[in-house]
Amino acid sequence: MITMKDVIKEGHPTLRSVAKEVEIPASKEDKETLRKMMEFLHNSQNPETAEKYGLRPGIGLAAPQINVNKRMIAVLVNDENGNLHEYALYNPKIVSHSVEMTQLENGEGCLSVDRDVPGLVPRYARITVQATSIDEEEISIRLKGLTAIVFQHEIDHLNGIMFYDRIVENNDPFKKSIPSSFK
Ligand code: SB7
Ligand code: NI
C-alpha cells in the first residue's frame, strides 16, 4: 500500500516535469499503480487507517507525487452539496472551461508540500474533462465547484505545476469563493 513515505516532496525534480501519456490499453503495472492511488485516498480519509499508518487526508493524488511520471490521477471528494466524486483516470485532459473563475476561501494545500502556503489560487469555476477510466472507458465529465478545483490541482501536477505557482495577491474581494470546510 501507499503511505506518506512514498509521497515525494517539493524540491524533487519529478514534481517539476511533464508526465508521459499512459498507453491504452494500460499495462497491469499502470493499472495497479492507479488502483493503489485510489486505495491511498480511501485509507487517508478513514480515521482508523489514517491514524494507523500516519496518513495525511487527501482528496486527490497524481502519479508524479509517488514518483511515477505518468498521466494518472485519483480523486475522491465529497463536494459542497454532499455528493461523492470518485475517479481513477488515465490521461485526463481539460477540453473546455468556463470564463468564470473560482477559488477556495482558505487557499490550497498539497501532500507534497509540508508547509502552509497562504494565498488564493484562481481556478476555472467549471471544466469539461476527457479521460480514460481505470476500466478503460472513454469518458467526458462536466465538473464544478470543489471537484473542478481538485481536478485542476491534480492535472497541474501532471504538467509540473504546483498550486503556489498560481497564487495571486491582488484578488477580487467580491469574488465568490468556496468555504474551506469542504477542503
Ligand atoms: C486543496 C487540496 C487539494 C486539491 C485542491 C485544493 C488536494 C491536496 C492533495 N494533493 O496534494 C493532491 O495533489
Ligand atoms: Ni497536490
From TrEMBL:
Co-factor requirement: Fe(2+)
Reactions it catalyzes: N-terminal N-formyl-L-methionyl-[peptide] + H2O = N-terminal L-methionyl-[peptide] + formate
UniProt cofactor note: Binds 1 Fe(2+) ion.
One example GO MF annotation: peptide deformylase activity
Catalytic residues in the record: E154
Enzyme Commission code: 3.5.1.88
Keyword entries, A-Z: Hydrolase, Iron, Metal-binding, Protein biosynthesis
UniProt key word Lyase: no
Domain of life: Bacteria
Role summary: Removes the formyl group from the N-terminal Met of newly synthesized proteins. Requires at least a dipeptide for an efficient rate of reaction. N-terminal L-methionine is a prerequisite for activity but the enzyme has broad specificity at other positions.
Stored HAMAP family: Pep_deformylase
Name of the protein described by the UniProt record: Peptide deformylase
Species in which this protein is naturally found: Anaerobacillus alkalidiazotrophicus
